[in-house]
Amino acid sequence: MKPPDIEHLYFDGRHYDQRCQGLTQDIPFWVSRARKYGDPVLELACGTGRVAIPLAKEWFLITGIDISEPMLAEARRKSSREGTVVEWIKTDIRDFELGKKFPLVIFPANTICHLLDLEDLEACLSCVKRHLTPSGRFVIEVFSPRLDILLRNPKERYSHSEYLNPDGKGTVIVTKSNAYDTASQINRIKLFYKLPE
Question: Which InterPro entries does the UniProt entry name for this protein (predicted)?
Fold first, then answer.
């Protein structure tokens, strides 16, 4: 398994939260899953707590794991500020042992798409299986890519988002390129950040 490059703005919790602010439409779904299957809940690749913190606000016991310490630091800061209790653990979703089982493991926000090869996917699924109770559920959110996006010219950049720089000085403009490999069926998206001067 190749370690991920986590020294990138994508993994900076402050930038992530600014870029993804307003992304809340999936929260009612995750709350409904927790109500149906019970807690404790394990969230894989929890990032800054975009899903975990709202679940904790609904009084669910939740553990969030992520490989990025900057993301977890932001999650801890937000969780403390909002008075929620979440167990935050720095670990790799491909190789973790938490010593407990969960009736519900969740993988929101298309994050499973970060597992680019079969070895990584199988390693993650094996860890999940070991952490599920006998009747536990593993719920994954994954999108169905639109053909027009997959067929984009990989040499061109397309608008992705704009957000206020976390330090309050100017706007960060994010563009992206899209390169789809039909043989592997992997869609590689590169994000390009233009920071204010």
Answer: Methyltransf_25, SAM-dependent_MTases_sf
| CA 80 vs CA 72, 116, 129: distances in Å | 12, 34, 31
Q: How far apart are CA 112 and CA 93, in angstroms?
A: 10
What is d(CA 145, CA 131) in angstroms, rounded to the nearest whole number?
Answer: 30
Say what the pTM is: 0.87
* Letter string b/e over residues 161-179, b meaning 16 or more CB atoms within 10 A of that residue's CB: eebeebeeeeebebbebbe
Residues 6+ apart with CB under 8 A from 138: 105, 106, 107, 128, 132
Domain ranges of the chain: 9-140, 147-194
DSSP string, 158-195: EEEEEEE-TTSSSEEEEEEEEEEETTTTEEEEEEEEE-
The alpha helices in the chain, defined as continuous H runs, are 13-20, 27-37, 52-57, 69-82, 118-131, 147-150
The CATH architecture assigned to 9-140 reads 3-Layer(aba) Sandwich (3.40)
* Residue whose entry in the numeric block shows the structure tokens 């994000």: 191
Tens digits of per-residue pLDDT, 50-73? 999 999 999 999 999 999 999 999
CA 100 to chain centre: 22
In whole angstroms, give the CA distance from residue 26 to residue 38: 18
